[in-house]
User: Which sequence fits this backbone?
């Protein structure tokens, strides 16, 4: 900006100095006013931080900690009132645990641990026994059911097995129940088979058949056979959906409690069989029943996942609570793929001391989605201030995303929820500034208006300087280009005239050739001068420069095409004229329009067009004249500049074509003087299409 200003006239330089001086004065006065208010901003920001910090501690952290800690204390009291053994099937213990989970609203599920390391769910079903190497029964020679020989009648065999079971050792009961179920099924007594399978699932869900290798658990086998028979009966119409759902859910529970002893291959096989049974049952269940089945299975799987996480992540610590090594229970946090896990472990005391522990799993997901948003929404924060909860590494938990630069206070959510942090921040960072009031607004207003006025003056100044410089540059370019374009034909004329004057011609033919060159160059010189005069005449779209009269558009365009054909120098160039009859007559300067169309036709030939098309259409009160060619085309970047005076394309092929850069500028000025416009559509190598659009003002419009 400085260099153009130095080259500008003296008056412009003086005006620039005045504008800059006034601008500096306004800025200095405004800065003094802002400095006076800075102390007020700092004071109000300090007050806002203090208020926000108190609200954060008392209304969010203490509130959430109170909910979780109150639930833990009530659970501890509720369990300590009992004197039971874990994992003995004590209905009172299971009922109390389930009641605490349902009533507190903080826990999602609970587990029981015995002092030997066994895990059980809230209904006291085994998830992992204390001794993983479960051995039942004796070698095959001692098992009377292993050597049982079946006869031709399953009903008789069934009675024999029942009699044998009554006289046998209780440790062989799983084998007897399995044999009873098979024989009852063979005898068509399905209800007895269901009863035997149910007894296995209740009494021996994790018992291993040690007479085969590798050992196979009785529970999954019995639950699967019962579910398969129930689904088959559902398909036959002899069983209800409720029974099928119960059997499928029981099968999934049995697979879950055998998690600790099923190898990966066997587990995948059992899971595949379970999914196949669910798929078979679906067509016979309505939408509500399908949802009921899916929810029950999902609950089993979530319990299984939680059991795995807790056993693997903090099982050792919880085991110490169950053995009585840690008095009073503990709060434990475990990391998991889906987020943190928080548990409260409460010791259970029997007549002889600690017999185990109850592990309550805190519903972290429920607190995050169901509790925190309501608490955050009810915080008594000042206007424009918001609170959010996030993890230690900044990931969002609840509430809006904080703006780090506008954070007022932050704190951990206490021991109750140690993995989350609470943050208070300004929703609108300009809030503090707006609290200053009218004084600051007045200063800003005066400063803004003053600066706007100075900038407007500077803009007008810069625009004036640039216009003056551009005018000078255009004058220089005009003289340079016109001088060059005039000098070239004059040089040729002078050279050939001197040759003729000195008689350096071989024959009459060469003499006529030189005269032809002189004639063409003179015509070119005349055309260039005429273009310059026409451009000056039409420049700025001045309508007063037109010689308007009612003109038959079709006849004018056909005559123009014929004139162009006579000027063609290339024998391989063809011109197609598509001028329909009945084009409306319009008021125009016919010679000027002819000159514009001839310029476009000439350009089409010069820039490689072998097939040139001249067409015209009239519609909606407008006349469109189109000149299209198949020449070298124009790049998109240059299409907006080709109508500028003296502009020549940067394209190498286009540069080889002689020209003054006035033709298209003259076309634009002529069309603009008629109140129309000229458009171009082109792609390099695919030719160009110029369209002249003129308003129809004469007859037939």
Assistant:
């Amino acid at each position: 900006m400085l260099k153009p200003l130095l080259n500008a006239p003296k008056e412009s330089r003086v005006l620039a100095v005045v504008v800059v001086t006034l601008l500096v004065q306004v800025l200095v006065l405004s800065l003094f006013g802002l400095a006076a208010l800075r102390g007020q901003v700092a004071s109000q920001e300090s007050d806002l931080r203090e208020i926000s910090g108190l609200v954060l501690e008392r209304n969010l952290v203490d509130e959430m900690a109170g909910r979780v800690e109150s639930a833990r204390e009530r659970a501890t009291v509720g369990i300590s009132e009992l004197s039971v053994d874990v994992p003995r099937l004590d209905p009172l213990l299971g009922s109390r645990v389930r009641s605490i989970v349902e009533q507190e609203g903080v826990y999602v599920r609970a587990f029981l641990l015995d002092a030997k390391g066994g895990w059980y769910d809230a209904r006291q079903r085994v998830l992992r026994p204390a001794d993983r190497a479960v051995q039942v029964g004796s070698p095959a020679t001692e098992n009377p059911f292993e050597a049982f020989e079946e006869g031709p009648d399953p009903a008789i065999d069934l009675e024999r097995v029942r009699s044998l079971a009554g006289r046998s050792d209780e440790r062989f009961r799983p084998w007897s129940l399995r044999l009873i179920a098979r024989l009852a099924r063979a005898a068509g007594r399905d209800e007895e088979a269901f009863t035997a399978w149910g007894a296995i699932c209740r009494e021996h869900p994790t018992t291993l058949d040690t007479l085969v290798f590798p050992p196979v658990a009785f529970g999954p086998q019995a639950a699967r056979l019962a579910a398969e028979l129930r689904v088959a009966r559902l398909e036959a119409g002899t069983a209800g959906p409720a029974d099928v759902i119960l059997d499928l859910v029981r099968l999934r529970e049995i697979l879950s409690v055998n998690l600790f002893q099923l190898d990966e291959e066997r587990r995948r096989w059992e899971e595949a069989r379970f999914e196949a049974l669910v798929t078979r049952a679906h067509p016979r269940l309505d939408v509500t029943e399908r949802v009921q089945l899916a929810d029950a299975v999902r609950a089993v799987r979530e319990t299984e996942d939680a059991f795995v996480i807790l056993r693997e992540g903090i099982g050792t610590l919880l085991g110490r609570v169950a053995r009585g090594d840690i008095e009073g229970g503990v709060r434990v946090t475990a990391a998991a793929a889906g987020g943190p896990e928080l548990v409260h472990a409460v010791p259970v005391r029997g007549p002889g001391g600690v017999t185990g522990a109850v592990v309550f799993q805190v519903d972290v997901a429920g607190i995050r989605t169901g509790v925190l948003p309501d608490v955050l929404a009810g915080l008594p924060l000042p206007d424009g201030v918001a609170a959010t909860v996030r993890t230690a590494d900044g990931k969002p938990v609840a509430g809006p995303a904080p703006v780090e630069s506008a954070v007022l206070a932050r704190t951990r959510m206490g021991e109750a929820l140690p993995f989350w942090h609470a943050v208070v921040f300004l929703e609108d960072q300009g809030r503090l500034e707006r609290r200053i009031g009218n004084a600051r607004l007045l200063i800003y207003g005066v400063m803004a208006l003053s600066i706007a006025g100075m900038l407007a003056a500077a803009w007008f100044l810069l625009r004036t300087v640039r216009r003056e410089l551009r005018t000078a540059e255009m004058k220089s370019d005009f003289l340079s280009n016109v001088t060059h374009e005039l000098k070239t034909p004059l040089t040729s004329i002078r050279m050939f005239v001197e040759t003729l004057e000195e008689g350096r011609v071989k024959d009459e033919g060469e003499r006529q050739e030189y005269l032809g060159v002189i004639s063409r160059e003179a015509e070119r010189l005349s055309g260039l001068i005429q273009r310059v005069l026409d451009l000056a005449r039409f420049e700025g779209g001045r309508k007063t420069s037109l010689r308007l009269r009612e003109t038959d558009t079709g006849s004018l365009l056909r005559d123009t095409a014929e004139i162009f054909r006579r000027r063609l120098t290339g024998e391989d160039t063809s011109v197609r004229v598509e001028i329909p009859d009945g084009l409306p007559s319009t008021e125009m300067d016919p010679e000027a329009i002819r000159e514009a169309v001839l310029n476009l036709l000439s350009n089409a030939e010069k820039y490689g067009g072998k097939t040139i098309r001249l067409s015209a259409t009239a519609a909606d009160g407008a006349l469109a004249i189109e000149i299209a060619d198949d020449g070298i085309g124009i790049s998109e970047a240059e299409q907006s500049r080709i109508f500028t005076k003296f502009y020549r394309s940067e394209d190498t092929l286009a540069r080889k074509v002689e020209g003054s850069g006035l033709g298209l500028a003259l076309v634009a000025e002529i069309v603009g003087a008629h109140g129309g416009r000229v458009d171009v559509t082109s792609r390099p190598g695919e030719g160009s299409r110029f369209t002249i659009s003129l308003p129809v003002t004469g007859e037939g419009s």
User: Anything to note?
Assistant: Confidence is low (pLDDT under 50) at residues 652-656. Residues 240 and 537 are 99 Å apart (CA to CA). Residues 10-80 form the longest helix (71 residues). The chain has 18 helices and 19 strands.
